[in-house]
Q: What sequence folds into this?
């Protein structure tokens, strides 16, 4: 379980390290942000900083009867938005 106070970039939530400061070239971009590649370690690394989700905003999924996710792993995407799965129920991201 990852402590949000120690997370530096989004990729850590997905099991990938953050890129070193001198490694800032974007090789790919997806719904989580920008990705670099560490050629010494031969692995992807995250470039997009982690920001704690704001709790003062209404999540889109609450309008259709589903809670907001605490995490950010996307399992499904439909016309409504991005969906996660937590506590044995679907939730909006």
A:
């Amino acid at each position: 379980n990852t402590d949000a106070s120690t997370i530096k970039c989004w990729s850590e939530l997905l099991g990938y390290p953050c890129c070193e400061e001198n490694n800032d070239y974007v090789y790919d971009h997806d719904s989580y942000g920008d990705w670099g590649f560490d050629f010494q370690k031969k692995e992807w690394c995250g470039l997009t900083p982690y920001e704690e989700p704001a709790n003062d905003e209404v999540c889109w999924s609450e309008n259709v009867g589903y809670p907001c996710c605490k995490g950010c792993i996307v399992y499904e995407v439909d016309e409504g938005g991005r969906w996660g799965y937590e506590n044995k129920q679907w939730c909006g991201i």
Summary: The mean pLDDT is 85. The chain has two domains: 4-46, 60-92. The CA atoms of residues 21 and 69 lie 30 Å apart.
